[in-house]
Structure formats: structure tokens, C-alpha cells
Design goal:
Layout: H1 3-6, E1 10-13, H2 17-28, E2 33-36, H3 64-70, H4 86-98, E3 107-108, E4 112-118, E5 134-140, E6 143-149, E7 151-154, E8 182-184, H5 194-197, E9 201-205, H6 209-222, E10 229-233, H7 252-266, E11 271-273, E12 278-284, E13 287-292, E14 295-296, E15 302-305, H8 334-337, H9 352-355, E16 362-364, H10 378-393
Parallel strand pairs: 1-2, 1-7, 2-3, 7-16, 8-15, 9-10, 9-15, 10-11
Antiparallel strand pairs: 4-5, 5-6, 12-13, 13-14
Helix pairs in contact: 2-10, 6-7
Length: 420
């Protein structure tokens, strides 16, 4: 990269907790961030699961470098042992950080990144490619604009691209047509979305803690609303492994939820359907008829897809990325986060070496770096950006893979699950 290019800012895509952490760490190492957020405020996606209480305490959920900025203001630090909701994380940490005088001038809200490329280089062109700065194509109410930057940190997350209900990894037949009666993620069942579910039959699909959160809220709503029927569909052949966390689990809120769901199952409050492989969703007279490989489920009024998320990699399609074919994470990271082998607490520490791509200067961080793997930890994301920003400031020192310095990850879950 030319000396002029090194004077350019570093693009940060996404102004959630990880994106803002990246910005704070860039400033800390003497680089200038330019942050793009498609929402009308920082952390816009957090508001969608603001009602969910996190498994981890405040002490796990804030980046040390970002905290050092906030501590020089009138910011009141949350009690480190308390467990925040998503909304509290947004209001008490993300928004104060976004409005900090060191961050705010670099933050561009209501600005969508449509594509990223190299200046005057399509994906095929080799000549002097590493020397070319990046082009960020943005759009907002004023139109489209190209912005030139020296490097790119993609922290845009996965929340806007949930996994489909279909058993083949693509939408089930009829899934798109039934979209008005399907909710992806964990809706605010006891709050803003209560009228959608009250008095109705609801099928929750998914075997993780996001599904647990939805199920517990539906049961609570059924105590206030007559006529509800709560169904739960999982891919596995049984639900005998509900209480998965050890008694001494650092995340006691997670274990508490598991024990509560087990209690509800024992009481018969939830109807369970196993071996679920959805092929077809048919709408008839306002009801959803879900056809699985093992048979048809009872008709329901609403369906909640707590099936996880996947990365949207389209905006990077003109760049040379190296991705694990299964997880869609950076290739060197894939084996370290394989959900068939790892849980939240067993993913080894990793950094810029594992997050790098053939396109020098490009890094995907945060939950998007985990692709489809559901074991992401918020604190892991903070460590990622610390390593990445250090590498950008000192590129010649970025040779030792962090995985060779592995220690177990701190246990930390986001949005009621290891991932989300």
C-alpha cells in the first residue's frame, strides 16, 4: 500500500458492540476509523432482542479500551456482577460509546454499505493489488457515494440474515409465502409482540437457548391468555439433553433457563415434536400446516424460527476471501469453531492471523466471523478487534497465529445463547 493510502481511514462496517469496539481500538493505536451503520442509531439490531436477558454479567460484556474512553466522561459504569438485557446493553453502553466525542465524528448512521472492492481492481486483477486502497460503496438518502479507505473491518453481524426453516438449508416450500405468520429470532412475546401470540397456537423451531427463551415467554403468556397451545420442534430424536450446563457453570443464568425448560416439559406445558425436517409449509384458512419428513404437525397460527443466523457475504463478493466451506468463517478459523467439536467455552483464543484473507487489509470480525457456527462469545469479539487493530497498526509484527497461544475462552453468551 502506498504511503498516501496509509493515511486513509479504516472502514468499520456496523456500529454494534463489536464495531464500536473496533473503532475505539483503532483510535487507541493511532488509526482513524470511519464507521458505517445502516440503522438510525448505533446498535440498531440490539433493540430487536432488547427484552432478552443475557447469560453473562456486565463485567464480561464491555471492551476494556472502550471503557477507558467512557470512564473519562460522566458515564456511570454498570454494576459488574449484574446481568443486563439487550436493551440495557444498548442504552447503558453502546449508545454512550457511540456518542463519545472520540467516536461520534466518525459515525455515519442510516448509511448502508452496498459493496466493497479495491480501487481500479476487480477480483481478477493482480497488478499491484496489495497497493490499491479499498473502495466502500455506500448509499443513503443523499444517494450513492464511493469512499476510499486503507483497510476494512466488517463487523456487520448476522442478525439480518436468519437461517431458513427448510431442512435443506434453503426455504421450505411455502416458507416465503407464509412469511406474515413466521417470526425469525426471539420476538418480544411478553411485550410488543404479545398480541401476535396471545390466545394462539405457536410452533417454536430450534434446539438452542434462543428457542428456550421463546418457549419460556410463551408459557408465561399462556398463564395470562386462554386458548394457547405451545409446540416445540427439534431436529434431534429426543430432548433429553435440556440441562446441558454443569452445576458450576460460570453462566448460571444459562443453567437456570435450562432447568426451567426441563420443568415445563415435565409439567407437560410444551408439546415436543422430534426428528423435525421441514419440507413444506402450507397455509390454509389462516393456519400453517408444517410438513416434516416424519409427518405433518398439528396446524398452528404462528411459527417462531429460532434456527440461528448466517453471514451475508454479498458485499464482499469482489474481494478475495478464503472461507471454511462448512461454517463460512475465515478458513483458518473454521476448524477452531466447528460446532460439532466446540462449545462456547472451548473455542481457542484467536486473532488477526486466523481472521485474515488473501485480500490483505480485510478482516471479518464478531459474530459474522463465525459464519454459521453458533458458539460466538462477545468477549471473543473484543479480543479479535484488539488483535486486528494491532496488526493494522503494526503489519510487520503480525506473523504468529494466535491459536498457538491458545487458552480457553471466557464463558460469555449473547442474546440468550452462545450466539445470536
Amino acid at each position: 500500500m502506498t504511503s498516501n493510502a496509509k493515511d486513509l481511514p479504516v472502514a468499520v462496517i456496523g456500529a454494534g458492540p463489536i464495531g464500536l469496539s473496533a473503532a475505539a481500538n483503532l483510535i487507541d493505536v493511532g488509526l482513524t476509523p470511519i464507521i458505517f451503520e445502516s440503522g438510525n442509531r448505533a446498535g440498531a439490531n440490539l433493540a430487536n432482542w432488547g427484552h432478552v436477558r443475557m447469560f453473562s454479567p456486565w463485567s464480561y460484556n464491555m471492551d476494556p479500551v472502550a471503557m477507558s474512553l467512557l470512564e473519562n466522561t460522566d458515564w456511570a459504569a454498570p454494576a459488574p456482577t449484574e446481568f443486563p438485557t439487550g436493551r440495557q446493553l444498548l442504552e447503558r453502553y453502546v449508545l454512550p460509546l457511540a456518542s463519545h466525542e472520540a467516536i461520534a465524528p466518525h459515525l455515519h448512521l442510516n448509511t448502508r454499505v452496498e459493496a466493497v472492492s479495491r480501487q481500479y481492481h476487480d477480483i481478477l486483477r493482480n497488478a499491484e493489488r496489495p497497493l490499491a486502497p479499498f473502495v466502500i460503496r455506500t448509499s443513503n438518502t443523499e444517494g450513492e457515494r464511493d469512499i476510499i479507505v486503507q483497510a476494512v473491518i466488517d463487523a456487520s453481524g448476522t442478525y439480518q440474515t436468519p437461517n431458513w426453516l427448510g431442512a435443506h438449508g434453503i426455504p421450505a416450500i411455502g416458507e416465503l409465502a407464509a412469511s406474515q405468520q413466521i417470526t425469525y429470532g426471539v420476538p418480544d412475546i411478553l411485550g410488543a409482540a404479545s398480541e401476535r401470540f396471545a390466545g394462539r397456537s405457536v410452533l417454536v423451531v430450534g434446539g438452542g437457548h434462543s428457542a428456550f427463551n421463546a418457549l419460556q415467554d410463551l408459557v408465561k403468556l399462556s398463564d395470562q391468555s386462554e386458548g394457547m397451545r405451545i409446540l416445540w420442534g427439534v431436529r434431534g430424536s429426543s430432548v433429553t439433553n435440556i440441562v446441558r450446563s454443569p452445576e458450576n457453570d460460570e453462566l448460571q443464568e444459562r443453567r437456570r433457563l435450562e432447568i426451567y425448560i426441563q420443568k415445563l416439559l415435565t409439567e407437560g406445558r410444551i408439546e415436543v415434536f422430534t426428528d423435525l425436517a421441514i419440507e413444506n409449509i402450507r397455509t390454509e384458512n389462516g393456519k400453517l400446516f408444517v410438513q416434516s419428513r416424519s409427518g405433518q404437525l398439528p396446524p398452528v397460527d404462528q411459527l417462531i424460527a429460532a434456527t440461528g443466523f448466517r453471514p451475508d457475504l454479498a458485499l464482499l463478493s469482489e474481494l478475495r476471501t478464503s472461507l471454511d466451506p462448512a461454517t463460512e468463517s475465515p478458513a483458518d478459523l473454521g476448524p477452531l469453531i466447528d460446532p460439532n467439536l466446540h462449545t462456547c467455552g472451548s473455542v481457542p483464543e484467536h486473532g488477526s492471523a486466523e481472521l485474515s484473507h488473501p485480500e490483505s487489509g480485510l478482516y471479518i470480525v464478531g459474530i459474522k466471523s463465525y459464519g454459521r457456527a453458533p458458539t460466538f462469545l462477545l468477549k471473543t469479539g473484543y479480543r479479535q478487534v484488539k488483535s486486528v487493530t494491532t496488526a493494522l497498526a503494526n503489519p510487520k509484527d503480525n506473523h504468529l497465529p494466535a491459536a498457538k497461544r491458545t487458552t480457553p475462552c471466557d464463558a460469555l453468551a449473547v442474546n440468550g445463547a452462545c450466539s445470536q
